[in-house]
Every structure is written in C-alpha cells, then in structure tokens.
C-alpha cells in the first residue's frame, strides 16, 4: 500500500484537495449560525449545522474482496429548512482491499455554492492489481471456472484444467478527475455540463508482487502450488496475441472528455427516494492522448457516446405518519458508441452526469448487475435494468440520530446492443495477416471452441440475476447496503451467489 500512497497520481489528488479546501471552507464558514432544532412534518427532529465523523471504511465485494480503511462524510444542513437535503457534502476515503484494489477519493457536492446550480467535483485514484477481464461480447466468450479456481483440496478443483488464479485478470490503475454542474431550465427540467479526464495505466498482472514470499516451483504443476506461474499466459495476453487488442490500446491512455445533457428530476429526495422520476439523456465526447510508457499513440480512439437512463420510484404503501414503507423502484438505461472507436478498457466504464459513487463499472458486479461477475459484459454498447421493492421495516432513534432498517428484493438484467466485430478487430490489428478470429486462434495453437461460442445469436442473450438487499440508514443520507445476488446462468458466475457490502443505494 505504501507504493500507492507515494505514487505521483495519489500525490496529485492530495494536491488538488489541498488547493480546493480553502475555496470550499470560506463560503461554509460564512453561513449563518443554525437555529435551534425543530421538528419536521413527521414529528422528527431535523438536522442542523455540521454533521460529521471519521468512520472505518469497512466493506466487502465479491469481486474486490474485504476492504479496510478510513472515510468521512461531512454534511452541512444550515438551519435545517431544507432537511433531509444538505447544503454541502464533503467526502474523503482511503482504503485497500484483500484483492489488491485501492480507493483514494475526494468528492464535493452542493446545490448552494453557486446559487441556483448544483456543483460536483471528484478526484479519485483506483489502483487495481487484478482487474477482471472475461473477454468480449458477453456470452460469446466462454467462461471456465476451473481455469482459475485454485484450492488446497484437489477434489474441489480440476487440476488438469487449472491454469492460474489470475487467468481472467490484468493490471489497471484508473485516475479520474471530474467537475460537473447543473442548472435549471424550467422547474424540474435541468441542463448539465461537465469536464474531466480518465487516465488508464494498463499492464500484465505483476506476478512477482502477487506471489509475495511464495516462490513458484517449476518442477511442480500449477495446480500443486498456490504460487502463480510467471510464464503462464493469461486471457489478456491471448487477446493481444490474437489481435483482438491492438498495440495502441494495450497499455491504456489518457482521455479528457466533455459532457452535456438534460435531466428531469421530480424525486422527493436524492438519497433513497420514495417517489418521483429521474431521467437523463447526455452525450460524452472523449479525446485521447498518447498512451503511457512511450507506447504507440492512442489518438485513434476519439469517440462520442450516448447515454440514457430512466428511474422511477413508486410509493406503494405509507403508514399513518405518512412514512413510505414500501416503494417500487426501477431503473433502465443504455450506453452506446455513436461515432469513432473507443478503446476496450473504456467500454466497461458507465458514464454518469454526476460522480456520486466510487465505481462506475459495467456491466456486471455490485454496481450494475448484482450477482454477475464484474465486467462480464464488455462491448461497444449495452442496456441494463434494475428492479426492486424497497421495504422500510422499522424506524428508530438512537440519541439524536434517526435510523431505519429496510429489505430490498431485486432483479437485474444486462444485454449487449453493440457487439464487437471480432473478425474485423483481428484483421485490423494484425495488418491482414489473419482475416478471421478462428484463423488467428488456431495459428496460436489454441482450440477456438475453448474460448468462443459458434452461436452468433448468443451475443444478444440477456444476462440476468436476482437477490435481496439489507439497508441500514442514518439521517436519510448515510445508508449501509448489503446485497446478495445470484446469477441465472452459470456462465455469468459459477458460484451460488455474490455478496456485496457498500454505501448507499444502487440507484
């Protein structure tokens, strides 16, 4: 972890935060002193003034492992007249996971710093030593659990099929700096604009670092030892060999972007709404700087993407105090490339008008299709849906803090709308040496059917999951979420289910 704390990207993010702090704190200190606490329409004491505290950043994600670190979310409510809406929100987090994934993040959100406008600023560094990579086009790429499932008990794995625990991984560090602003056109109709940059630093997995003190013994098979074989080619290596990933994208690149769109928002509150509609439509144009490490330029990857999302929150039952006890919530959306070519590593990043979460990975995993492996769907365009019932089981107070406990059964779905033309990729990246993917795979000594299905319609099969979530909320804005999701098709996850502990609602 010291390596990441001393890295130049992280120092840059800390520098940005230190420069911005005085800018934020000056207007915050100028706010008038809060009035004595009052009671809202439901008889609960409203929150006023500052609310903050340092908490352990403890979480679990089936794809990232156990997370440990520290975070703080500072809210300023002023005189409480707009509660549960906050005037200013400052969020800081530094954490690391057992699967070698880091989180170093600063986020600011306010509807009051610029009168009449909402401003969100985000600076994030996400080093990932084992980023998931299951190939292109979802079900067209075959997944083999035994190829990466190592176990001390040989009866729980297939030693003859086992290759490497990181067979479906590669190294990816993501640096994200973004600023987004929203203004009002008329009532609930808003305009949105944003600027930012995404920096991807990509390489093969660092096997020496992952092995640590374990030494690989070449006299034993891969299945006989936990140490990773540094000479075992991974799926990412094979994609480069076959011509599916070009030399101009295999090391990543820097991509400044500009974004503009519209939103329509009638939600009763931002965090865990009980009623209303939120929909957005926007375009993102991403340019490309030279790839890092002196590699070939990535300038051929300028592209324009289109996003549309519709969220609807329907109150189904309110108690005699007017508190919504059951809410039906659903979200549908799509992201498609409408001009230019996007590099493969950007196609699992879900664009958003406002950076509110750490992760925007898709499709697959706890941030998009719960229960499915992270990044299982990798294509030029996709669509998704999340449907859930939100049951508010109990409300209670501890001291001056308001808490609730809820249950959320859910159903998630993802489909490909713009698949890769794999033969075209191979022909372009190999300079016409191979005209089809099957030719390239066979020439490398591999069996095509081990990696790809011959059914072209399988690309468009829906990826579906189902599960249930537990929510524990404090003061309406701070929500601890635990979700348990199960895949419908074993090609999306051979495990019975995936489990996630995160902050906030999925949508």
Q: What is the quaternary state of this protein?
A: single chain
Work out the radius of gyration: 24 Å
Order of the strands making up the biggest sheet? 3-4-5-6-7-8-9-10-11-12-13-14-15-16-17-18
CATH topology: Porin
Based on helices, strands and strand pairing, what is the structural class?
A: mainly beta
- Largest sheet composition: 16 strands, antiparallel, barrel
Helix content: 10-25%
Beta-strand portion reads 35-45%
Overview of the molecule:
- This protein has seven helices and 18 strands.
- Mean pLDDT is 88; it is low at 1-36 and 292-297.
- It has helices at residues 2-5, 8-29, 207-211, 235-242, 422-429, 437-443, 448-451; strands at residues 50-51, 54-56, 59-61, 65-76, 88-97, 102-110, 117-132, 169-186, 189-203, 252-265, 276-286, 303-318, 324-340, 381-398, 401-418, 463-474, 478-487, 498-503.
- The chain is mainly beta.
- The protein has a single domain, classed as Porin (Beta Barrel), CATH 2.40.160.
- Helix content is 11%, strand content 41%.
- It starts with a helix and ends with a strand.
- A 16-stranded antiparallel β-barrel has the order 3-4-5-6-7-8-9-10-11-12-13-14-15-16-17-18.
């Amino acid at each position: 972890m010291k390596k990441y704390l001393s890295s130049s990207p992280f120092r840059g993010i800390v520098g940005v935060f230190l420069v911005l702090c005085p800018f934020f704190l000056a207007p915050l200190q100028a706010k008038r002193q809060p009035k004595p606490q009052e009671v809202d329409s439901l008889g609960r004491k409203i929150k006023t003034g500052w609310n903050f505290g340092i908490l352990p950043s403890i979480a679990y994600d089936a794809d990232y492992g156990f997370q440990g670190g520290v975070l703080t979310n500072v809210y300023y409510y002023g005189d409480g007249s707009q509660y549960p809406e906050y005037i200013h929100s400052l969020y800081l987090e530094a954490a690391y996971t057992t699967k070698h994934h880091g989180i170093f993040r600063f986020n600011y959100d306010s509807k009051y710093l610029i009168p009449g406008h909402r401003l969100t600023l985000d600076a994030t560094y996400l080093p990932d030593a084992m980023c998931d990579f299951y190939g292109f086009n979802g079900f067209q790429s075959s997944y083999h659990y035994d190829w990466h499932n190592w176990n001390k008990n040989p009866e729980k794995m297939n030693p003859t099929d086992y290759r490497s625990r990181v067979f479906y991984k590669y190294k990816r560090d993501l640096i994200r700096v973004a600023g987004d602003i929203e203004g009002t056109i008329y009532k609930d109709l808003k305009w949105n604009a944003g600027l930012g940059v995404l920096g991807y630093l990509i390489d093969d997995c660092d096997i020496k670092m992952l092995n640590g003190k374990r030494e690989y013994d070449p006299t034993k098979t891969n299945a006989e030892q936990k140490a990773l074989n540094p000479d075992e080619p991974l799926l990412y290596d094979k994609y480069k060999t076959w011509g599916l990933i070009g030399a101009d994208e295999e090391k990543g690149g820097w991509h400044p972007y500009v974004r503009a769109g519209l939103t329509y928002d009638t939600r009763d509150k931002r965090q865990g709404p009980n009623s209303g509609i939120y929909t957005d439509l926007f375009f993102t144009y991403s340019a490309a700087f030279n790839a890092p490490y002196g590699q070939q330029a990535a300038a051929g990857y300028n592209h324009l993407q289109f996003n549309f999302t519709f969220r609807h929150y329907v109150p189904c039952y309110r108690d005699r105090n007017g508190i919504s006890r059951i809410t039906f919530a659903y979200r549908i959306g799509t992201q498609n490339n409408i001009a230019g070519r996007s590099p493969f590593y950007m196609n699992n990043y879900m664009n958003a008008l406002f950076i509110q979460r750490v992760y925007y990975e898709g499709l697959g995993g706890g941030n998009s299709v719960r229960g499915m492996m992270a990044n299982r769907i990798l294509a030029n365009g996709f669509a998704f849906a999340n449907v859930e019932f939100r049951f508010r089981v109990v409300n209670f107070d501890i001291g001056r803090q308001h808490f609730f406990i809820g249950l959320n059964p859910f159903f998630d779905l993802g489909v490909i709308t713009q698949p890769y033309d794999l033969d075209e990729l191979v022909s372009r990246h190999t300079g016409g040496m191979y005209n089809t993917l099957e030719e390239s795979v066979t020439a490398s000594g591999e069996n095509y059917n081990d990696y790809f299905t011959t059914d072209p319609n399988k690309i468009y099969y829906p990826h579906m999951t189902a599960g249930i979530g537990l929510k524990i909320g404090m003061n309406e804005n701070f929500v601890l979420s635990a979700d348990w999701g199960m895949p419908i098709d074993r090609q999306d996850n051979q495990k019975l289910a995936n489990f996630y502990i995160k902050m906030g609602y999925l949508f």
